[in-house]
């Protein structure tokens, strides 16, 4: 009988040890679950704070305005007038007379062509802006 009691005591001790291991594992898993839950909640709070702090910028979208249309029309008309009157009304000779007084090294026809192209592209840009 003594022999039968000894294995029973060792079995009980082993069972107690296994039970303690199981409890320890369960407690560790519970603690890990609690930590995960806390970390998830903290992460959600941080994300909510960042979402509140975020500032959304709207891109500037040009709108059709009367001023834009008037400026576009005026620049396109000026460019057309300069190009149209370059030779028929002897505009080149008039501008050349003014340029000689200042001693500029550029010809009148080239200067008028550059000015008209600049005005044309400004007008075209304003029309494009007004369309968008």
Automatic annotation (TrEMBL):
Residues 12-54 form a coiled coil. Keywords: Coiled coil, Membrane, Transmembrane, Transmembrane helix. This is Uncharacterized protein. The chain crosses the membrane at residues 64-84, 104-127.
């Amino acid at each position: 009988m003594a022999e039968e009691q000894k294995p029973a005591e060792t079995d009980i001790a082993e069972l107690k040890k296994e039970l303690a291991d199981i409890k320890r594992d369960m407690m560790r898993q519970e603690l890990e679950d609690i930590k995960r839950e806390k970390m998830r909640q903290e992460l959600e709070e941080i994300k909510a704070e960042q979402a509140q702090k975020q500032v959304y910028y709207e891109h500037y979208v040009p709108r059709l305005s009367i001023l834009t249309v008037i400026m576009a029309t005026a620049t396109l008309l000026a460019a057309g007038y300069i190009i149209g009157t370059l030779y028929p009304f002897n505009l080149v000779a008039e501008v050349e007379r003014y340029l000689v007084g200042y001693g500029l090294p550029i010809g009148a026809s080239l200067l008028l062509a550059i000015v008209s192209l600049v005005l044309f592209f400004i007008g075209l840009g304003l029309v494009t802006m007004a369309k968008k």
